[in-house]
Amino acid sequence: MSSNPNWGQLPTLVLTNVFQHLNHRDRLNASRISWHWRSVIFQPRFFKRIQFDVSREQNKKISFYLQKLAHIVSEVKITFDSSNLYDVELTAEILFKLSKSSRLLSLTICPKNATWVTPGISMRRQLRATAYSEEEWNYILKLFVQPVKALLTRTNPSLRMLDLGCSESLALHASEFLTASCTAKPQHLERLCFATVKQDPGHYPLGLIEPSLFEKCTMLRVLTLDYDIMCDDMLQTLQLLPLRQLIVHVHGIDEDHFGLSEEAWASFRSKNPSTELHLTLVCAYEAVDILHTHILRPSMPLTHLKVLFCERINCDALEYLSRHYKDTLRSMVWVDSMRIEEYRNIMELVLRTEQDPLVMMAWRCKKLEEIIIHGYVLDPHNLVGVSRLRGRGLKCLEVSRIDLSIPSVMMAPFIEEISAQLGKRWSPLDAKTLPAVLGFYPVAEELRDRYILNYIRKDIMQ
User: Fold this and answer.
1) Which Pfam families does this chain map to (predicted)?
2) Residue 310, SS3 per DSSP
């Protein structure tokens, strides 16, 4: 009898116990010992999540994932180029197979573009949408919406998280998704991401969600919605849920939208004192002007404000932030591309406000951890003031344009002072470190949309 064990044929139970003591990388390396060891590794306990990065180059990997892993994992994320028809159709195939899974708890569908293509549409329609044809609607309904609804109506186990990746095409079906979940176990839903980035921020169809559809989502912790869907009745329903994070995207402001009242926000905040409100304006060319008069309300539990590519800065809104959110505001981001024909100088704009709004924000908002401003020329004296007021509590101070009237040789003392106050080496972003989309205007819409999609997804609590 041989004294040498046949390591390649160890019993499955023994191998499983061994694998449990290894981290994921070591487990994968160990599985290369033999075909038998390899077969044992494909268990739900060893594979919790996978990500499909859809492209022709990834076909073999995608096929392997669908064959070996799709039916055992509990979390799936699909990233794809929604402006590429091949990727869209392959994503639809993946969704169909995932809809048969009996273990999937979390699904993220993450297009890389705001624009979607479907078979047979014109090039004009591909580049910038104004309406959805019946053909497009039926295509998305059959190949994308129905598989998701199949997962939402499954009861054992029920879906816990659905993230539509800011897709306007899918979010138009949000009401259907919620209705489908109500036939199963909506009380198990923990995260729903329905907020969008519009294909055409100036003209888009309005989605509707009846507030009562959220009533049974009694475990919902994270919710993202478009401002168009929000109303006082919606807030009244949401205040009954254990929300930790509410993210609202603002695009256009419809003339029939009544806005949200101060009373509704006050009631919401009293019932949900720990909820974080993230407000994001995306290419909201009109809404940015009325941000402080029609959108912001004193009782909002506002912790994060992002204003992305709205083509102007609203200093009255900045002043409003410092006055009303001194106990909640943690992050303020205002991002635009720089225009060649005009240096949109914040120093000129703040003359109307008596005091620099950034300095006042740093002074009043005791929880402020992040200030990011791109596309506007800033006064270095004010940046020094901000750094002195916030000190090391300001974890991120990111700018790219400093007053060009000051010679570069005279900038060194400002940079040294800011670095000393922040407790780390600091400097404004330059041409090498600044993302191309934040360079000189005009910027390709596809490049801008990709930047926006990547940037705002950082908001969602992990």
Assistant:
1) F-box
2) coil
- Distance (Å) of CA 453 to CA 161, 163, 171: 19, 13, 15
Tokens standing for residue 270? 């009293």
Q: What is the pLDDT of residues 395-409, one digit of tens each?
A: 999 998 887 667 666
pTM of the model: 0.89
Q: Tell me which residue of 369, 431, 375, 423 sits closest to 397, measured CA to CA.
A: 369
**184 with 40, same domain?**
no
Please indicate, yes or no, whether residues 21 and 133 belong to a single structural domain of this protein: no
pLDDT tens column, 317-372? 999 999 999 999 999 999 998 764 444 555 544 444 567 899 999 999 999 999 99
Residue 95, SS3?
A: helix
How many domains, in total, are found in the chain?
Answer: 2
Within 131-213, residue ranges assigned H as helices are: 134-140, 146-152, 168-171, 174-182
Could you give the 3-state DSSP secondary structure of residue 279?
Answer: strand
CA dist., res. 378 & res. 398, Å (int): 11
Is the same domain home to 98 and 29? no
